[in-house]
């Protein structure tokens, strides 16, 4: 998935805003980050539950891995945008959004 497609997907969710976050771009709902994009490294980071993080990492440990330190233990998971299907990335993005958004907002996107 290229950066512009990723950004468009992030902004397609209700009440999302795009803001800088250090050297990355962040996507927030209710002032909380649910995804970041590192354009230079072509990586996205998502806020997943421990179970979802485990499932995605088991799927492909070379292209999906927990963030280092406490961030990874809190569910932050890094995805290589160049090596995964758009469907995999969009599934993780949707889960991340639903983990951070209010129940009312997330109901629209849950499977």
UniProtKB/TrEMBL annotation:
Gene3D superfamilies: 3.90.1150.30. InterPro entries: YjbR-like_sf, YjbR/MT2646/Rv2570-like. Signal peptide: none annotated. Keywords: DNA-binding. The keyword Chloroplast does not apply. One of its GO terms (molecular function) is DNA binding. The keyword DNA-binding applies. It comes from the Bacteria. This is MmcQ/YjbR family DNA-binding protein. It comes from Pedobacter psychrodurus.
